[in-house]
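#random but structural
TW: two for the price of one
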Amino acid sequence: MPRWGYCFFFAILLVCSCVRPTSEELYQSSDKRDAGGAYSFSFDMSDTLSYDVTMYTIMDCSDYRFSKFKGMQIRLEWHSPMDSLIERQVWLDGGNVIERSFYSKRFSLPLAQGVTPYVPGMWTLRVTPPPKAVSHYRMSGLGVRVSQK
């Protein structure tokens, strides 16, 4: 291969290695909640692409305790780079379980699909589950995955 071919090949590798990842995933343990019981996550949504946002959590409780679980309402607060606030409530129930054993249940809940931020930049998502549910069902933490489409 000619010398310019090697240079071109390495230039392509360099450009590809600088590409931002297509998804970002953050997790916080339950002891990292703020005084109001909220988990807080910040995401760079500077691109004008659309995004999928998924929440996941684990409950470390027995099947016996989980049998009484009817679901829980979770409060979401999206804070834009311009400090505007978008509030929403979502429902997490047994239908969101993606993996289970006798002592542990793993949940996944789509929060938004194909959403395009109206203001590009750093967005903050605050997720507040009911405090009783966190302790009673032993939520070990909560995570959020943001993927570019």
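TW: number two ↓
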Amino acid sequence: MKRTILAVVVLAAFTPALAQAPRGPAPRDPTPSPAEVRAAHERAEDVAAASRAEAIAHRDLDQQTRMAVAAERLTNLTKWQLWATFASIVGLAGTIGVSLWSVRQSRQVITHAKETSERELRAYVAVRFSKALVFEAGKRPKINFRLTNHGKTMAGAMSIRMGHAWRPRAAPSEMPAPPLPDPIKMKSLAPGENIGAHLTPAAILSKADFDAIERGERELVAFLELRYTDVFGTRREVLFSTAMTGKELKDQRHNMAHMANG
């Protein structure tokens, strides 16, 4: 009880002092001012702008990354296309080379077949010398020969030029043909057909030449140039020659030796 009374007395003594003590600041109004509102809006706009800028940057970076990847893929594709084109060119070149080789081989085969066909089917005209029809001193010799087509086709547009020369028996076996007269036209020769003709030297055979030929000291060299056209349109020209002594002129028959191909 005593303690309660004491407390009341103390409280009553200090109450006027507490009433006279200075008061603190008044409580602040929670409503924001217009400046604060503007500042808050500006901060929010700055944050939004920064977010947008970051999003744009991320989007640009993503687009650039995609473009770089696409460019790399396109570069790789272009490389493969270049390699494929190069391989195609190499293959085309190889194909062209093989084709050219095939064409060349085909031409060679065709040419060979044509040449073989011409060799097998063309006309072959040969000359056979017979004994002299006239061989006497004081006369012009007349030497008989025959033309024969040993080929399988016609020999047309034939012509011959004939000439002769006297020479010592010991002379070299080959000698150039003397100047020959104008050609004499002959009829065409069918396969297997033959025709006779004769060579008549212009000079009269003297007694001394006749005796020398009879003794085998001199000989007569006869030349015959033959020209004809085969069925393939090729103009053939052959020069034949043969050397004969008196005995051969009288008794034997000889094939004339070829001096040129025909």
